[in-house]
Amino acid sequence: MRSCHRPVILLGTIVMLAAIPAPAQGPGGYNPPGQGVDLSGNWGPVFHEDAHERGPGPELVNYLGLPITDGARAYALAWDASRFTVPEHQCEVHIVGYIYRGPLNLRIWEERDPVSQKLIAIGNYIDNYEQTRTIWMDDRPQPPEAALHTWMGFSKGKWDGDILTVYTTHMKQGWIRRNGLRHSDQATLTEHFIRHDNHLMHVSILSDPLTLTEPLLKSQDFNLRVQNGQTWLYPCEPVVEIPRPRGAVPNYLPGGNPYVSEFADKYKIPVEAALGGAETMYPDYQSKLKKTTPAPATRSSK
Amino acid sequence: MMSSMLKRLVPAVLSLGCLAVMARAQQGEIQSIKVQGNVYLLTGGGGNVIVQIGDQGVLVVDTGLAQTADKVLAAIRKLSDKPIQYILNTHFHPDHTGGNDTIRKAGQTFTGANVTGNIADAALGAQVFAQDNVLMRMSAPTGQQAAMPFGDWPTETYISGQKQMFFNGEPVIMIHQPAAHTDGDSLVMFRTSDVIVAGDIFVTTTYPFIDVNSGGSIQGEVDALNNLLDMMVVGHQDEGGTLIVPGHGRICDKPELLEFRDMMTIIRDRVQASIKKGMTLEQVQAAGLTKDYDARYNAKSGFGTREMLIEAVYKSLSQKK
């Protein structure tokens, strides 16, 4: 009989113990429950969204659906793709707000204090250009205004429930779209990393009053990879591809871009739509387009 | 033709205007930030002040405005209590030389016994180096009114293409850039720290002020920017490496200077094309040729406005013809 009661007593003890709140896990409150999820691992991009732009790249003078200012548009129209051939430009890497759209392999890991195990930072390795990014989780102060701006910027993160929200400043100027549209070095970036099991959604919101009339919101998706992610290397070595006078900068004079209507002609849309602006982001613009005359297919594009 | 007196007064008047504008713009405290190696940047004193420290002492590039000199000196003293031995000026404008007198007097020159014996004040104060045109712009012949106080003048100038020194364990090289921001611009290269001080040839706060009346020109400006690019070596993954400190604004690396060089070259090309079409300065001003850069660089007032830049580019290209 006594032996029959033993499992019942043991079970009751376990239930009672389980009902007692667990004590704090040491001084400093080591990673208390509710502080986010583990994003660590190798993540590969899913290209179902905007694949054409993200792979081969956007057409020239396709600014459709982007809330750009007149100044940003003027910059892009003066931009000659041959600028990529200038030696100093050849090894230019992508900016943090743009690189997550690329064919990247993304490795994420945690940096923890070896004693307290508090989360200090979340690291990202983006293999396209061997870029390493640090998202500081320790609420450290911002760098001074006079500090160097970088391609990855200065990022601070915090957990909003299970969503990692990251705010980035101190970026260089960089691509909005790699056909001449640039954001300025005054831009800021807000991101959300949202993990659902083995799927990671990355949402980015770029704000730049100098080149955007409204924040630009984009999203990208990743799948967790069981095997190690590929690690591309980027041993870029600039060379003279086109002999030019010293200091020459390929550019189009105002009104001189020969490709203004190429994209519009191809897709039979008005040039003004191809030139973008906040209005072209919204569904209402489609009804406006129907009332306008399509770009003549015969228009010279060069 | 302008008399020599008038030639000196024009930059003097400009300088006073510059002084007033910059004084309004610089109300904050002096901020100190390490650039890299032995080199530090002090902001908030007018033009940027750069400090190199080491076992031998302190070397200062540009000294800011006169009215912030005491604060700049205090900030230098927080970095090092060693003797301030050298001041290097990138050009003559008072937002870069106004603190010369105060900081020079706080410094010290180490000289040989025969010199100190014969020249009583040889060891008093730091030495002030600049390209010779800086002294010409700041001073005046005996009996005439100088543009700047005597105490701010360089104590030693160079007329060859560059001046070399070795201080605090690294080569420090001043390299003259003729007819750029002015006719007396020097780049200052700290070769071991891998930092270059650009003076007002490069600024990140507004359009650059090309002081045509003091010998500046758009082509000299573009040439100087190309020289800078040649001197800089970018780090791994197109970042870091040689760092550059502008005359106003923040620390940059080569990719950022490259964008600035591109901008100045493109604006030059546009104005040049307009001149070839026979457009007047007023027509060029109205043509919106800097629309793509205005949001970032156009100063609301004072120096660095779009109008001043276009006028300077137009005038210097027209003079060239």
What order do the SSEs of chain B take from the amino end to the carboxyl end, as H and E?
A: HEEEEHEHHHEHEEEEEHEHHHH
Largest sheet of chain A: 9 strands, mixed, barrel
Termini separation of chain B (Å)? Answer: 19 Å
User: How many strands appear in the DSSP assignment of chain A?
Assistant: 11
Listing every helix as H and every strand as E from the N terminus to the C terminus, the arrangement of chain A reads: HEHHHHEEEEEEEEEEHHH
Which percent band covers the strand fraction of chain B?
15-25%
Shape of chain A: globular
Determine the N-to-C terminus distance of chain A.
97 Å
Number of domains of chain B: 1
Using the CA coordinates, give the radius of gyration of chain B: 19 Å
Which fold name is given in CATH as the topology of the domain at 41-47 and 54-59 and 89-225 in chain A? Lipocalin
Class of secondary structure makeup of chain A = alpha+beta
CATH homolog superfamily of chain B:
Ribonuclease Z/Hydroxyacylglutathione hydrolase-like
CATH architecture of the domain at 41-47 and 54-59 and 89-225 in chain A: Beta Barrel
Question: What descriptors fit this protein?
Answer:
heterodimer, A: 302 residues, alpha+beta, Lipocalin, nine-stranded mixed beta barrel, two-stranded antiparallel sheet, 8 helices, 19% helix, globular, disordered N terminus, disordered C terminus, B: 321 residues, alpha/beta, Metallo-beta-lactamase, Chain A, seven-stranded mixed β-sheet, five-stranded mixed β-sheet, 11 helices
